[in-house]
Amino acid sequence: MLKPMVEKIIWLYILLLPLQTVFIFDEKFINGAKWHYGTGVFYATEILLVVAVFLSLIQLIKSERLALSEFFTKNNILKKATIVCLWLLAFWSGLSILWSAEKSAAFYLWLKLLEGMALFLIILSLKINKNKLLWPLSFTAGLQGLLAGWQFVTQSITENKWLGIATHEAGRLGEIVIENSDGRWLRAYGTFAHPNILGGFCVFGLLATLELSRLAKKQHRIILMVVAMANALGIFFSFSRSAWLATIIAMAIVIIRSIKEKDCKSMKAFVSASLVGVFLLFAFSSFVVTRSDLSNRLEQKSLDERGSQIMESLGIFRSSNWLGVGINNYTATLASLYPDLPAYSLQPAHNLYLLILSELGVFGFLFFLLFIILFFIQEGICHKKIIWLAPLLIIGLFDHYLWTQYVGIVLFWLVLTFFYKSCKIVR
Fold first, then answer.
1. C-alpha dihedral over 47, 53, 57, 60, to 10 degrees?
2. Taking every pair of C-alpha atoms in the chain, what is the biggest distance, in angstroms?
3. Pairing state of beta strands 40-43 and 177-180?
């Protein structure tokens, strides 16, 4: 049986997912600056996913679960509709390459999207025990949290090519910082390309830790309490407002669920993370106030940019005749509209839904929306589902990395498998 081997590979893949070690095979520039969104890269961790996909296909063929006859039976109509929407989203995303201005950039991201979908289908099709997969997500997010704490306290992020970490300095223009009366302070990145990705990753790491606390043996709960505190460090020191909001909403749902189900098993980990959060809130209150002060120069600039991005994305959508400009071609379109701007000034809309609408048009957006809705409503609505889905959708309102970054794409599809454990793929 290949299933145990696939399970171990995916376990290791999730554990190593934060590694940003890449091989750059097609570097692109716009006005002398590197165009990250159009550059072709291959992540070291992708090797593990490719192996897992290959072994899974062999396993599925051997077990004859690729037969399509079962798909056309009268049972599980809702699940079939869900899978149809998934295939249509994959097909339409690939089809959009045909009318993309930058076809190679579109193709590169489409492959990453297919990898995320493949991970999603493997876990559900092979009925891999998803509770086991919560462990690597919990621990690797905890390690990111510890690294984040160190980075912020030391205000130092040095280059490490083996981990894929770039050098970041608070005094350098273009860095993601907090600015107050004491100067510029570098936000923690972890091993990721942006602090917001760190924050989102640790949010789901914390959720994984809390879920494990409900199931773990008594001797493991102390370990999970420590990991929960480390997760909280990553969320806080990312200073990502979207991650903060997602955490608050998710924790509120956790409390409601615990009261409703009279479940106290996860409360120790919850309280541990909360105490760390409260301590950091008071210890670094000036930074929290700065991030909450919308009149602050950098915060006002950020809000103005996001406001203009909303209008910009709608304009791009309308100009594309409702077809969209093609997957991963949003910034390429901006380059044609503003030919004098360098690549680092060309940013995707910080809204997952508007970005998909702009790139894939009406049809692609509908396929995406229908897939999420149909997937969510299968077999009823419960707190377990909402705990995972709510933060995912909230982050999507304020960030784009779940669509534009490899780690974000994989995280999106991985979280979907956690949020709906009972879903079975029917072909």
1. 140
2. 67
3. unpaired
**CA atoms lying within 13 Å on the CB side of residue 218:** 0
CA distance 392 to 15: 20
- The residue assigned the tokens 């990705």 is 197
Rounded to 10 degrees, what is the CA torsion of 174, 175, 180, 183? Answer: -100
| Nearest-angstrom CA–CA distance, 403 and 390 | 17
What is the three-class DSSP state of 420?
coil
Residue identified by tokens 């992708």 is: 46
| Among the listed residues 102, 49, 38, 58, the one whose alpha carbon sits nearest the alpha carbon of residue 326 | 102
Q: What is the pLDDT of residue 215?
A: 79
Residue 87, number of CB atoms within 10 A of its CB: 13
Chain-centre distance for alpha carbon 318:
27
Q: Residue 77: enclosing H or E segment and its boundaries?
A: helix 77-95
Angle at alpha carbon of residue 138, lines to 136 and 143, rounded to 5°: 90
Lowest mean pLDDT among 40-49, 175-184, 247-256, 406-415: 175-184
The residue ranges of DSSP E strands in 167-232, in sequence order, are 177-180, 183-186
Nearest Cα neighbor of 149 from 195, 182, 181 is 195
**Average pLDDT of the residues in 28-45:** 94
Tens digit of each residue's pLDDT (9 = 90 or more) over 124-157 = 888 888 788 999 999 999 999 999 999 999 998 9
Those residues whose C-beta lies under 8 Å from the C-beta of residue 243, and which sit 6 or more positions away, are 196, 199, 200, 202, 203, 235, 395
Q: How far from the centroid of its chain's Cα atoms is residue 303's Cα?
A: 22
Contact call for residues 21 and 164 (beta carbons, < 8 A): yes
Radius of gyration of the CA atoms of the chain, in A: 21
Sign of torsion over alpha carbons 215, 216, 217, 222: negative
Lookup result for tokens 């894939």: 360
pLDDT score of 291 = 86
pTM above 0.85, yes or no: yes
3-state secondary structure of 127: coil
Please report the sign of the dihedral spanned by the C-alpha atoms of residue 306, residue 307, residue 309, residue 310. Answer: positive
Determine the 3-state secondary structure of 69 from DSSP. helix
